[in-house]
């Protein structure tokens, strides 16, 4: 009995001594040399957090060609090359050009004409010709004039006629007549149909539709930019996870090699089998991640739309160089919703639709009234014999004119069609009101959701880092323990199984950390997308060229305004809170045109008007679209906790609060929004910091 107790005490003391030695060895190894060499000069201990960042910016796929780029590069290239963006731009340009088409209805029309005739008709009355059985007449007439519809609905036509006329009638005196006639015809609508707003209704409708189309363009472009940024960070995430999985595979292979070298000493068959099973499973995961990386970079290339980035026979690897960074800025829900109400393109588009419905209500009310027109006709005329046209033209001004005037009244019995159109217009107006409310509520929900996602991923990032730190400590302790005392002497390999599980938990924690960091960057983009400031924060402004009407995406520190050559219709408010008609578009000076990749996978430098080089011949003179008047009075103030300068601002060389953006048919300036830091601060400020190479 005493011997058994003594043996138990000695066993307990030996176990405690071994545990003390293990922990002391781990502490000494981490203090003197954090990565002690294992067999073959390699380390089994885990490096610090973030060790994979340097490897992600290098090649991870077996591709003969590669190209490196940052987020700024792919954004510029997507704006210049994306088929979706180009398609929406052309569609919007066509919609905006309808304003010119409708406004051309008020242009002056030139009228020119001539007529040469010779008639030979039988007569049944001797009084027609004075005895000749047939009436023969020859005439030559020339007409010139102009016709125009004024902006108040008045139709004016002025024409001058001159000509020759001769006949075989004995009563035709003088013979060989030369005649001249100056005519003026005028029809002016009275009552409400004579107002400018009614006669310019098609122009105003085209302008409002153009403003709505411009906001739809912003919506599509911001969505495509958000998709590109999302694909960029997902590619970075997958490349990091592939690097982490390969490192896990390498560590498991080291353990397998150590066990294979100790199979004749203390390594059991079960331990070797378990190590080989983990190696095979982790190698299979590497294959899956390599496929995911290839598919993700193909998706990114499709979203960018540049043909130089698509797969070739040799293969091309896309290497993003940015790393995720967390911003310390805290957005309040009130400030974020305020920015969304000012800048969200969906809200602006819904507002334009409401203004269009209000215009239809106003027009339908006018059409309920009877139509009353004033008609006036007058002319001067003269004729002389001997074909003296010039004398007739001069003498026509020496005589009193012939005039006539009258009124035209028109009113359908019962006005059923007009009443029906008025009711339909009012119902559409109420429908657009509810649509606007729905868009505002949905925007508030999206902003709140995006803001909570940002806060969630920021907190999860810290918790994931703590989880990873504990997983690293656990694996280091178990690795040192396994190297010092080897197996546990059993046939099940519990110590090895515990170490392999710890390796997997550590790699899972690393991959979770990378995924949360990627989700955080994407959530920042979604927050900017929800607030409608994704393009504004980057200083990117879609603007239409006055030559050709093409839409370009320009960037600049400040944008001035110039007077537009278009005629502004008068403003006819439907009520005290709604302005139906927009202001004329504004002209903006050219700033910088975005370049893109060429066939050699190198980037064309951005042409800037501020540089020493001459601007491109196709440099557009631009116009922008702005905030509706109904929202101009409800703009919230800029958040006091403004976002600090981010890498996107550095890349675009912008100053906080400097850009002032206006859109065609805008009313008032748009306040500049603070730039959210959805890009890392490590991005180079060079325009195109790209590389290419060959293995």
Overview in brief:
The protein is an alpha+beta fold and 695 residues long.
- Quaternary status: single chain
Radius of gyration: 41 Å
Number of helices: 16
Measured distance between first and last alpha carbons? 74 Å
Overall residue-averaged pLDDT value: 75
What portion of residues belong to β-strands? 15-25%
Q: How would you write the strand order of the largest sheet?
A: 2-3-4-5-7-8
Structural class: alpha+beta
Number of E-state strands: 16
Query: Considering DSSP H and I runs of 4 or more, what fraction of the residues is helical?
Result: 40-55%
CA-based shape = elongated
Main traits of this protein?
695 residues, 16 strands, 16 helices, alpha+beta, six-stranded antiparallel β-sheet, disordered C terminus, disordered N terminus, five-stranded antiparallel β-sheet, single chain
């Amino acid at each position: 009995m005493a011997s058994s107790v003594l043996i138990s005490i000695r066993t307990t003391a030996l176990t405690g001594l071994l545990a003390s030695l293990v922990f002391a060895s781990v502490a000494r190894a981490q203090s003197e040399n954090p990565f002690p060499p294992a067999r073959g000069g390699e380390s089994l201990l885990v490096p610090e957090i973030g060790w994979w960042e340097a490897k992600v910016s290098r090649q991870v796929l077996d591709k003969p060609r590669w190209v490196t780029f940052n987020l700024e590069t792919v954004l510029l290239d997507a704006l210049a090359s994306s088929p979706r963006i180009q398609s929406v731009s052309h569609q919007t340009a066509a919609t905006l050009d309808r304003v010119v088409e409708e406004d051309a209805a008020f242009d002056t029309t030139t009228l020119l004409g001539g007529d040469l005739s010779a008639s030979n008709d039988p007569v049944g009355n001797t009084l027609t010709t004075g005895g000749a059985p047939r009436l023969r007449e020859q005439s030559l007439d020339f007409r010139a004039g102009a016709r125009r519809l004024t902006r108040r609905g008045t139709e004016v036509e002025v024409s001058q006629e001159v000509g020759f006329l001769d006949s075989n009638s004995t009563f035709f005196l003088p013979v060989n007549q030369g005649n001249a006639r100056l005519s003026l015809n005028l029809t002016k609508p009275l009552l409400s149909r004579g107002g400018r707003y009614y006669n310019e209704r098609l122009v105003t409708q085209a302008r409002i539709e153009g403003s709505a189309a411009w906001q739809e363009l912003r919506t599509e472009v911001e969505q495509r930019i958000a998709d590109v940024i999302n694909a960029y960070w997902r590619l970075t995430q997958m490349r990091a996870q592939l690097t982490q999985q390969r490192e896990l595979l390498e560590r498991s292979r080291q353990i397998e090699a150590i066990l294979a070298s100790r199979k004749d000493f203390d390594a059991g068959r079960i331990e070797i089998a378990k190590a080989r099973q983990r190696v095979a499973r982790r190698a299979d995961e590497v294959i899956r991640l390599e496929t995911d990386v290839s598919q993700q970079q193909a998706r990114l290339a499709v979203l960018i739309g540049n043909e130089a980035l698509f797969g070739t026979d040799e293969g091309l690897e896309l290497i993003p160089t940015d790393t995720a960074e967390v911003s310390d800025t805290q957005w309040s829900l009130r400030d974020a919703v305020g920015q969304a109400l000012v800048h969200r393109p969906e809200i602006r588009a819904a507002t334009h639709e409401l203004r269009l419905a209000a215009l239809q209500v106003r027009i339908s009310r006018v059409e309920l009234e009877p139509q009353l027109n004033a008609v006036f006709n007058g002319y001067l005329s003269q004729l002389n014999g001997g074909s003296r046209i010039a004398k007739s033209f001069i003498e026509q001004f020496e005589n009193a004119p012939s005039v006539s005037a009258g009124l035209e009244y028109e009113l359908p019995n019962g006005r059923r069609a007009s009443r029906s159109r008025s009711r339909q217009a009012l119902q559409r107006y109420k429908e657009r009101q509810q649509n606007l409310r729905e868009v505002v509520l949905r925007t508030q929900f999206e902003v709140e959701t995006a803001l909570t996602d940002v806060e969630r991923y920021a907190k999860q990032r810290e918790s994931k880092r703590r989880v990873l730190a504990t997983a690293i400590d656990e694996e280091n302790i178990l690795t040192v323990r396994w190297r010092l005392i080897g197996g546990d002497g059993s046939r099940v390999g519990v110590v090895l199984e515990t170490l392999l599980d710890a390796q997997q938990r550590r790699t899972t924690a690393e991959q979770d950390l990378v995924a949360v960091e990627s989700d955080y960057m994407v959530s920042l983009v979604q927050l900017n997308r929800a607030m409608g400031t994704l393009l504004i924060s980057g200083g990117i402004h879609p603007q239409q060229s006055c030559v050709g009407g093409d839409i370009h995406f320009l960037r600049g520190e400040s944008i001035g305004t110039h007077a537009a050559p278009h005629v502004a219709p008068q403003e006819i408010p439907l009520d005290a809170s709604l302005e139906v008609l927009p202001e004329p578009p504004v002209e903006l000076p050219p700033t910088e045109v975005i370049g893109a990749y060429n066939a050699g996978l190198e980037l064309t430098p951005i042409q800037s008007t501020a540089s020493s080089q001459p601007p491109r011949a196709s440099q557009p003179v631009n116009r922008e679209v702005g905030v509706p008047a109904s929202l101009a009075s409800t703009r919230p103030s800029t958040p006091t906790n403004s976002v600090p300068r981010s890498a996107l601002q550095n890349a675009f060389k912008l100053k906080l609060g400097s850009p002032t953006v206006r859109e065609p048919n805008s009313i008032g300036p748009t306040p500049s929004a603070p730039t959210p830091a959805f890009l890392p601060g490590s991005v180079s400020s060079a325009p195109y910091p790209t590389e290419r190479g060959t293995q």
